[in-house]
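Lab channel / #folding
Pinned by the channel admin:
"Please post every new chain as: sequence first, then the C-alpha cells as a reply. Keep commentary short and put observations after the output so the thread stays searchable."

First post following the new format, from NK:
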Amino acid sequence: MIRWIWAFLDRPAQRFDDCAKFWSTVTGTELSARRGEHDEFLTLLPDPALFAAAGVKMQAVTGLGGVHLDLDVDHIPTVVRTALDLGAELVANHPDYAVLRSPGGQTFCLTPSGRGRGTPAPATKAPDGTLSRLDQVCLDIGPADHAAETDFWKSLTGWNFEQGRMPEFARLRAAESLPIQLLLQRLENDRPTSAHIDLASSDIDATARWHETLGATVIDRYEHWIVMHDPAGATYCITARDPRGV
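Reply from TO:
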C-alpha cells in the first residue's frame, strides 16, 4: 500500500535556515530550491553520484514544529477510507493530498505515489570517519493510547512488526527497501502521540560531539542512545544501531 515514506522535519520559520543547514550537513545532502506559496518547503537531496533517492523533507512552520510523515500511496481516497476505519481523523482533504491524525494524535499525510523511488541514501561519514544515517521516525506514545496506536500503525502500514529488546520499544519495517522505518515507544506518562527523528550511528558519542560543533545540544545520555536538540530545539536521538542498515 505504501510506495514511499518521507520524514518531514517541521521547524520554526525563524530558525529554519540554521536547521536546514544543520540537517543537510549531518545527512550529507544538498538543499533543494525552496518551494511552496511561502517558500516553506525543501528536500534534502543525496549526492547524485550515489544514485540514491531522497527520503527527508523540511517545512518552515509557525510555532515549535515537530515531525510528521508523508506516505506515498497509489489511491489516496481508498487509503483515507482505510485510515478512518482504523480510527484516524481527517484534518484536511486537498485535491492531491490528505492530512490526517492517528488515534493518538500524530499528524501524517497521504500523498501521491511516484514522488520517491529507488535506493535509500547510504550512511554519512563524519570528518572523523564515524558513520551515521537518518533512517527512523520514533512515535512517542502515552500508555493509554499505546495499544490502539500500535494496532493502527501495524494495520495501516502492513509492515513487519518486531518487539524490541526493551519492552517499551517495538519496530515497524517494510519488506521492501524504504528510507524510513518506524519505532514505537511507550512513554511513562500520557500525552498526545508525537514523533522525533532517530539516527543510527557507529559511535554515538562521536556523532554527538560532531553534531555539537554544528549547533546541536546534548540533552540526556543513555547506554544505547543520546538525546539531542537541533539548532531549533527540536528533539532527536542518536542511537547505537548499524547505520549501514544491515
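NK: The chain is about 20% helix and 40% strand.
TO: also worth noting, The mean pLDDT is 95.
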